[in-house]
Specification:
Blueprint lengths: L1 E2 L5 H11 L5 E3 L6 H5 L3 H17 L3 E4 L2 H7 L8 E3 L29 E6 L8 H11 L6 E6 L7 H10 L6 E5 L3 H8 L1
Parallel strand pairs: 1-2, 2-3, 3-4, 5-6, 6-7
Helix pairs in contact: 1-3
Length: 191
């Protein structure tokens, strides 16, 4: 299963699979939509599709799209492989805006009326949290209603590093760490 288009690995993995007579899928993840192609580097993308990726796409067992609109939007490129639409493995109904009172407000009353910038994930150096905090620090002087909510488990103790960066950047009043949120609390954080 190959994810993405504009990487050297896409045609390389396809060639390896073909050389061993192994079936493979390619999931373009929206990268074949005309709007995505038209963005930055459109000429290079068109060349890449024609020179590098078309053979991989044509010889795939299937091209996996996550929505009917993505499949239709890529149709004009004329790939030969069968197209299949399999949505991502979540039920969007479960993520509709919740009703009632926000259970996070008693813990974080200062969030009322704020525009929330949400990080939802585990604490890990490779997740770019230092970059996020530094970028947030650049926004705060001109966007006073912003508040950064960092949600997720800290298994390695990396949260202490991020808290130090928050303090160093003078953001203590604009950033909160909730720890792991699940169920209704997580849903409210998302909305």
């Amino acid at each position: 299963h190959i994810h993405g288009i504009y990487y050297w690995g896409t045609p390389a993995c396809a060639r390896v699979a073909q050389s061993f007579d192994l079936p493979y899928l390619i999931s373009p993840r929206g990268m074949l939509l005309q709007d995505a192609i038209a963005m930055k580097g459109w000429f290079r993308k068109r060349i890449f599709i024609e020179v590098m990726a078309r053979r991989a796409l044509n010889n795939a067992s299937a091209i996996h799209y996550t929505a009917e609109g993505e499949r239709c939007g890529s149709e004009a490129l004329g790939f030969l492989a069968p197209a299949v639409v399999v949505p991502n493995g979540i039920d969007p109904i479960e993520y509709l805006p919740p009703q009632g009172r926000n259970p996070l407000l008693p813990r974080f009353p200062h969030l009322a009326g704020k525009q929330i910038v949400l990080y939802l994930g585990r604490f890990d150096q490779k997740k770019g949290l230092v970059l996020l905090v530094n970028a947030f620090a650049r926004l705060v002087p001109t966007h006073h209603s912003l508040h950064l909510l960092i949600v997720g488990p800290d298994i390695t103790g990396y949260a202490d590093t991020i808290k130090a960066v928050v303090a160093e950047r003078g953001l203590k009043g604009q950033v909160d760490f909730t720890g792991l949120l699940t169920g209704e609390d997580k849903l409210w954080a998302l909305h």
